Every structure is written in structure tokens, then in C-alpha cells.
């Protein structure tokens, strides 16, 4: 598979938003101040937990041609576009290598369908997480699209399973950005919450990292993000 051009390193301060398939501004109308856009979301084929592990992308807010044109323009302007997979009530079972291979193949297909994007966000909720398979999937995607293909994960900081997955992905060298969904619970931007993220997620034994948090947005779809650095 042809690799996409290498993306520059993520900025130390990422200011992003979700573009949900059901409402909100047109893709082209997202203010330029948002330097990262998550497309929400690719869903499991056959419904949760997925018949094969594969996902699909569908949106009816604008024509496929217009959407792809807008997406290409955003990326040409140097903004990062990330495909989010899963979401609430859309758990994806990735418990086997066969299912992991299926999701990788389906993401590659969506990449072609949309004319390219810059990374994948694993919003796997509502079921068992499989850290070793998630590492495998991330490595396969980076092998297909280049080492700068972004892997992000939105953990619930209070979830031990989510924190363990973050640590596993981080230690494997495949986690580029960790960003809780700040709209989920008031207080996620407090110093106490940031400290918990540093200690429990970004500082597993033997690893070094730093964390920065950008200004909070007033938008309900905003997702300020913290970028781990080795």
C-alpha cells in the first residue's frame, strides 16, 4: 500500500474537536483555530460487538464528493484529521488477531474511500479491552501509512482498564496522544485530574513523559488534548 506523506509531529498543544456524523457545522466551516479534527465515528460492521472486527464509515450530511474535497482542503492547510472508531454503544470486539486484521483492512479501505486522513482514535467503550491486540493493530497501521500516522486514545481516567491500555500502548511506542473526552465529566481539567493522568497513564515504569493542557474551549464538541512525549 502506498504510504501517505509523513505528517509533522503533533504540536505540544493540540486543540481539537469532534465532527459527528449527525449534526454540527459543515466540515469546511470548522474554525481554523482547531488544529485537529476527529471524524466521529466509524462503526462496527453488523453492529456491536461487530461480526468480524471490521468497521465502516458513513455520513449523509453532505455528498461524498464535497466531504472528500473539504477533508483534502483541511489536510492541505496542515490540520490533522483523525478517524475515530467505536464510541458509546458501539463496542468493537478485537479479541483475536483475525478480528484485528479485519479492522486494519477496513481502516485502510476507509482511508482510500475518504482520500486520506492522518490517524485513528480508538474509542473502544462498553466491553473488554485487549491491549496486545491494540498494539498489534497500531503497529500494522503505522507500517501501512508511515510512522507519523497518529494513534490516539480517549481514556476514562477513573477506569483501571483504560489506564492499563494507555500504559501498554505507550510502552510499545505506538501511542501518540491521549485525550480524555473532557465533556464527559466536570473537573477533568483540574490539576488533580492532570496529575492522575501523568502518574497513572503517562508514567509507566521505565518511561518518561511530559503533559501539557491547552486552553479549555466553550464548545460542547471540543476535546483539548494532552500529547505524551518520550
Tell me what the structure shows.
There is one protein chain. The chain has one domain (16-202): TIM Barrel. Helices cover 30% and strands 15% of the residues. By secondary structure, the protein is an alpha/beta fold. It is globular and about 40 Å long. The chain is built from five helices and seven strands; from the N terminus they run E-E-E-H-E-H-E-H-E-H-E-H.
Brief characterization of the structure:
With 230 residues, this protein is α/β, with parallel strands linked by helices. The protein is built from 5 helices and 7 strands, in the order βββαβαβαβαβα.
Strand content: 5-15%
Q: Give the number of helices.
A: 5
Give the low-pLDDT segments. Answer: 1-6, 203-230
Distance between the termini: 29 Å
- Per DSSP E runs of 2 or more residues, the count of β-strands stands at 7
CATH topology: TIM Barrel
Please state the CA-atom Rg, rounded to the nearest Å.
16 Å
Q: What is the CATH class designation? A: Alpha Beta
Helix/strand/pairing category:
alpha/beta
How would you sum up the major sheet?
A: 7 strands, mixed
- The tally of structural domains comes to 1
Shape: globular
Name the helicity range: 25-40%
Q: CATH homologous superfamily - what is it?
A: Glycosidases
Shape-level CATH architecture: Alpha-Beta Barrel
Order of helices and strands: EEEHEHEHEHEH
**Overall pLDDT, averaged?**
81
